[in-house]
Amino acid sequence: MTSPAQEPVAATRFPRPDRVVIKVGSSSLTAADGGLDGGLISTLCDQIADIIEAGVQVVLVSSGAVAAGLRPLGLAARPTDLGRQQAAASVGQGALIQAYTAAFDTRSLACGQVLLTPDDVIDRQRYLNARTTFTELLAYGAVPVVNENDTVVTDELRFGDNDRLAALVASMLGAGLLLLLSDVDGLHDGSPSSGAPVLDRVDALHDLDERHYGASTSGVGTGGMASKLEAARIATFSAANCVIARAHRPDVVTQVLSGEQVGTWFPPADKRPESRRLWEVFAHRPTGRLHLDAGAVTAIRRGGASLLAIGVTGCDGAFARGDAVDLVGPDGVAVARGVTAFDADDVAAVVGRSSGAVREALGAASAKPLVHRDHLVVTV
């Protein structure tokens, strides 16, 4: 499953990709005085310029808008209410893109701001429009600088963190690498404070356990290791390599792009689901779980089947029709994620029933799978 980091060797992890999505987090972009870390931004943009000159197309997903807006508004810490978060994002987004524009200008590179919400990309036409915007910017040699549109998004409809957003952008654009730059060296095999080593490679994300997950402690970000592992899952499903590494490591971007053993590497999966399905299933955090019997797990994993009520043994969570839910086997391992066609109360009323019994309980209009295979991605 995993292996501890080793000293660099001559062999590279993967060939240099033609296109890469780089994500940098708020904690890495925030200086000691609470403002933007201009030094890191300058260094990062220089490294990006270097790999662009080497023929690599780069999309930069940057957090930091809310953090950048705190000091101008006289806020000592990230606000917890949505209204003040949006106000801080409105002020900070301008400062953030201005900093990137100035840094890239020193290398004669243009950058373009792209602000996204889940609605912009779950809808098929908006998805295509967003992809066209990225494609045109990259064709001109510009660097798309992406962030969630925090000024208008609601708590109920948001990506939730830019790790997830970056992975979905990588999927949309067929990127060969997702590089997640953070304030940690990679994924530790336990608590970093206890001296647990950084894992060099992770092949089976479903084998990771609670010792590999943590929460954001910076006070300015919304991510944490759990969100990065979710992003790695999406990226590897999309046939992309993924690396988690420290943003402040010297030459980290050029080292990772050269295939050096820096940070933790997640190799790509063999098969790539269609991008639209990945966006639909993974754009939102799951709001519930459907518990499956062994037969249903086999049918979904090996037969590409839809999920029928007869294969469900229970459910939990306050999910509604159209929400993402995890499909969990008898051993408690999530084997798939999908978009449910039923509310939680309706699912609870028909678990274990045949299709005929479902029609009798909920009406003829309910003669459909709980989760259709076209709205489902197998994760194990």
What does this structure look like?
This protein has 380 residues and is an alpha/beta fold. It folds into two domains: 2-278, Acetylglutamate kinase-like (Carbamate kinase, 3-Layer(aba) Sandwich), CATH 3.40.1160.10; 286-378, PUA domain (Archaeosine Trna-guanine Transglycosylase, Chain: A, domain 4, Roll). 36% of the residues lie in helices and 19% in strands. It contains 13 helices and 14 strands. A seven-stranded mixed sheet has the order 4-5-3-2-6-8-9, sandwiched between helices. Strand 12 and strand 13 form a beta hairpin. Helix 2 crosses helix 4, helix 7 (162-173) packs parallel to helix 8 and helix 7 runs antiparallel to helix 10. The longest helix has 24 residues, at 82-105. It is globular, with a radius of gyration of 21 Å. 42% of the residues are buried.
Measured between the Cα atoms of the first and last residue, the distance is 13 Å
The overall number of domains is 2
User: What would you call the shape?
Assistant: globular
Arrangement of strands in the largest sheet: 4-5-3-2-6-8-9
Low-confidence spans: 154-158, 215-222
Indicate the CATH topology of the largest domain: Carbamate kinase
SS-derived structural category: alpha/beta
Annotation field: number of helices: 13
Q: Which whole number gives the mean pLDDT?
A: 85
Order of helices and strands: EEHHEHHEHHEHEEHEHEHEHEEEHHE
- Please name the CATH architecture of the largest domain: 3-Layer(aba) Sandwich
Helix share of residues?
A: 25-40%
